Amino acid sequence: MKKILLIAIFMVTFITSAQIKLSGIVKDSIGAPLEMANVIAIDTVAKRISSFGFTDANGNFKLDLQKNKVYNIKISYVGFKEISEFIKSKSENITKDYIMLEDNMLDGINIVSKMPVTIKGDTIIYNADSFKNGSERKLKDVLEKLPGVEINDQGQIEVEGKAVEKIMVDGKEFFSGDTKLATENIPSNAVDKIQVLRNYSNVSQLSGVQNNQDRVAINIKLKEGKKNFWFGDVSFGGGQSQDETLYLFQPKLFYYTPKYTINIIGDVNNLGDVVISRRDARSFGGSFQSQSPSNGTNINIADAGIGFLNAGARNANRIESKLSALNFSYSPNKKLDLSGFLIWSGNSNGQRNISDIDYVDPNIPDEFRDTKTDQTSNTGLFRFSSIYKKDFNNQLNYNVAGRFSNEFSNQSIESRVLSDIVQDENATPYTINQDFSYFYTASEKSIFALEVKHLLQDEDPFYVASLENDPNNNDDADNDGFDDAAENLGLDRTNMFYTLEQDRKVKTNQLDAKLDYYYILNQKSNLNFVTGTILSSQNFNSRFFQILDNGAELDPNPTNITGIENPEITNDTQYNFTDIYAGLRYRLKAGIFTFTPGFTVHSYNSNNTQYGLETFTDEFFKFLPEFETIAQFKRSESLTFTYRQEVNFTDVNQIARGIVANNYDSFFAGNPELINSSFHNVSLRYSSFNLFNNSNVFSRINYRRTIDQVNRNTNFAPGSVVASSTSINSPLDNESFSASLFAGKRIGKIQTRLGGSYNYNKSYQFINEDENTNINTGYGFNTRIGTNFTKAPNVTLSYNVNFSNQENSSRAQVFKSVNHRPSINFDAYIWNSVTLTSDFSFNEQRQNGVTTNTFSIWNAKLAYRKDRDAKLEYEVVGNNLLATGSEAAVSQSVFAFTLNERFILPRFISFRIRYQL
Question: What is the chain's Cα-based Rg?
């Protein structure tokens, strides 16, 4: 690693020493500086752009040039005549100013289109070919090379620190709901321009009366040769691992015309290439993006599904994936756009996790578990969207999306405390979301926006757990780890197995409707009046029972669970929630500032009925202020301050008071008297995208104080790891603080990055009836330096280090963990035919200063094609070439400190053939 770092430093030094700088000022005819003028240097021998830049607010520019070469310097700015001049560089820096003359013919637009990066208003336009070296195959490979664009650990795109909410191709949505399908499947050779749409709003009428600085979208412009023709690729391959025969088949086909589009993605493989994980599938069926700000009410609709573990190449030892996906759009006329998708995804995986658990309470025995899991998830997804624009003053949208799943999970657990356990879960949940909106511009000063959303959700998890038992030692001092818990739960302890079953059904029906009225006072200010309602209804039914060794069913007679005397073993809960609200916001632009103060007033009514007999009601009014200020220092530099007071309501899962088996070691009874929590949220965000000095800086600070936080009161059975708990409102305020910083700079062909984060979280729980204060502090740093050559191999070096400290009032010791992760990526395209990519990472996990685990992961790919335009490409792909068997990670919670070892996919070497249409 040290040798590689020295080579990288030498490369930077060599490249920098071989360059000179051309700098100066660009002004108009009266001497006023021109900001964001395009300045490029074209190598007259190579006939390509050698360097490019932009003028800053004072008209300054600078370019990096090679010594002793002739360049064609071109300067363009919309509305001015293009400047074209030849300069011969020598060994000294050059300083030269330019004056541009007005030209109503708008010359220079063609030159602008050739720039690697241009900015037009809120849109950043990247010329994709300027960042390619030939090794790219998918859109993701190009995005990772763009300044200001990041692909996070979850595979989602972030621009200037903000998550991209949608990807469009030639203005048409591409599988809305998740951006990974686009990044992993759109071929890079089809991409001409990448347009980053900041302050994005898909309703043009509202763009001038709202603050959309947190919303970002991307539009991919296709190359001309990719329109009106099928394009894409088909990959197939196979191989052999130590346990099984490998296979892969992935067709990815696309057809685009101005009137309609068709996208087809298929996948069948057992190589660990998960196109859509279960977590991704759930985001596809999520709620629709509202066009107006949140109005201060949050309802946490919890997931009542099974404990399904997310699977990937880094946490599973077997993965089989199947996918069929169809995306379409159709525009029968200029006023109507129709689009949608159909997806079927099937995932089957196996996992093995070994956990070493150190509980906070010294009276709870330390636990060691070896868990083997087999899971299968089959999910169907659909979405249909329509946009009707009668004219500029009228827009009507309707969307409907659904998710239907069939899920199974089987676990075999070897526990030091609880002996052997078998656990089975299955569920067939479904979710249907609908969204209707109408936007009407009544006059130059009046805009109406009506939005109605509806959620219908049904969940039916079924749970079975079987624990070994010795019925002869139930009352001994060294009895089985589950015996005392079984007594509290009212189970029959004379059986050889504790076989527990539970059936749950949770139904949710929620309507959210609001009307916004925007009154434009003048060009710099407007008023936003809002009124609306949220109506939510949930039903929760469950039954907890025991299966005896002879097959008979037993209804337990529990005596105690976390202080609740004689709890019920069934649930029959009806929960209704109503919020009726009205509010006002005032938006004012004054110089560089945009001020948006506002408030909403709410009338809340929540009630829950238990077993049709007892009803608990809570009615109150709430005034929720909010304030936002944006300081726009430059076109691409801003500072945003936000304060919001919001109210958070829990859902029926937390208030149903009968016993629920969350797991074989965790039993829960809800609290029907829970009240809402509220929080104060303050954030400060800075963003700078500076094309003058090729740097970008994004930072965020956030503080949240939560009042009446819904927490847990948890009791552990004496000498056991089995816990029972109920929900409570925390008597003390919870606090969290987070800060993050990202800074990047390009020096010639060298791209650098420095990032850091800090998180502080203070919460309160009750453990074994004692108040427990838990403080988690985490901070980390990451650095990266890499090359971005178009005609030479590229190397990227990264180093990440993360620190995590946990303090708990129940013990004096502070648990400290550190994770170090250096890595190196190599990317080369040689002789216009051979592609070689490789990534290597080393991980070291330390706990209280002692190294607990180290592991390394190395993947590589060698591909051959006759030339850039060849239809066939042959690949040899190696995954986990070092045959690393497992990875380790440390997790912290209020209850325990856990070292978890995950077994991963074995070494795979596969041969693949890709045919490009």
Answer: 30
Residues 914, 872: contact at Cβ < 8 Å?
Answer: yes
Give the other-Cβ count within 10 Å of 377's Cβ: 21
DSSP code of residue 185: H
Instruction: Give residue-wise pLDDT tens across range 171-222.
Output: 888 887 678 888 888 999 999 999 999 888 878 788 788 888 778 999 999 9
Contact 484, 720 (CB under 8 A): yes
How many angstroms separate the Cα of 423 from the Cα of each of 27, 375, 465, 570, 815? 73, 12, 4, 21, 31
Nearest alpha carbon to residue 841 among 854, 856, 826: 856
Amino acid identity of residue 211, one-letter, is N
Residue 841 forms beta bridges with which residues?
Answer: 823, 857
In the prediction, which pLDDT does 1 show? 47
d(CA 466, CA 469): 9
Backbone angles phi, psi at 140, to 5 degrees: -55, -40
3-state secondary structure 14-45: HHHHCEEEEEEEEECCCCCECCCCEEEEEECC
Q: What is the pLDDT of residues 765-800, one digit of tens each?
A: 888 777 888 899 999 999 999 998 877 899 999 999
Strand spans (E) along 360-461? 367-391, 394-415, 419-427, 430-441, 446-459
Enumerate the β-bridge partners of residue 696: 689, 744
Tell me the C-alpha distance between 651 and 637, whole Å.
41
> 460-513 pLDDT, tens per residue?
999 999 999 999 998 887 888 899 889 989 999 999 999 999 999 999 999 999
Question: What token pair was written down for 247?
Answer: 């296979």
- The residues near 208 (Cβ < 8 Å, ≥ 6 apart) are none
* Ordered strands of the 38-43 beta sheet: 48-54, 38-43, 70-76, 83-88
3-class DSSP assignment, residue 317? coil
DSSP-assigned letters across all residues of 520-573: EEETTEEEEEEEEEEEEEEEEEEEEEEE-TTS-EE-----EETTEES--SEEEE
Q: Alpha-carbon distance 366 to 720, whole Å?
A: 9
SS3 650: coil
> Following DSSP, what letter does each residue of 478-506 receive, concatenated?
T--TTHHHHHHHT--TTSSEEEEEEEEEE
Nearest to 706 by CA among 300, 287, 293, 290: 300
Do 860 and 876 touch, CB atoms closer than 8 A? no
Q: How far apart are CA 892 and CA 492, in angstroms?
A: 35
CA distance 722 to 551: 25
DSSP 318-348: EEEEEEEEEEEEEEEETTEEEEEEEEEEEEE
Which tokens go with 762? 């203070």
Contacts of 485 (CB under 8 A, 6+ apart): 667, 717, 720, 722, 724
Cα distance between the two ends of the chain: 41
State both tokens at 600.
Answer: 């909403």
Q: How confident is the model at residue 4 (pLDDT cuts 50, 70, 90)?
A: very low
Task: Report which residue type is found at 650.
Answer: T
Q: Which two tokens stand for residue 253?
A: 């086909």
Q: Count of CB atoms within 10 A of residue 391's CB? A: 8
pLDDT digits (tens, 9 = 90+) for 358-417: 888 888 899 999 999 999 999 999 999 999 999 989 999 999 999 999 999 999 999 999
Q: Is the pLDDT of residue 78 over 80?
A: no
Give dist(CA 82, CA 108) in Å, integer.
Answer: 6
**In this structure, what DSSP letter does residue 310 have?**
P
**Token pair belonging to 492:** 């029959």
What's the Cα-to-Cα distance from 155 to each of 144, 309, 723, rounded to whole Å?
11, 18, 36
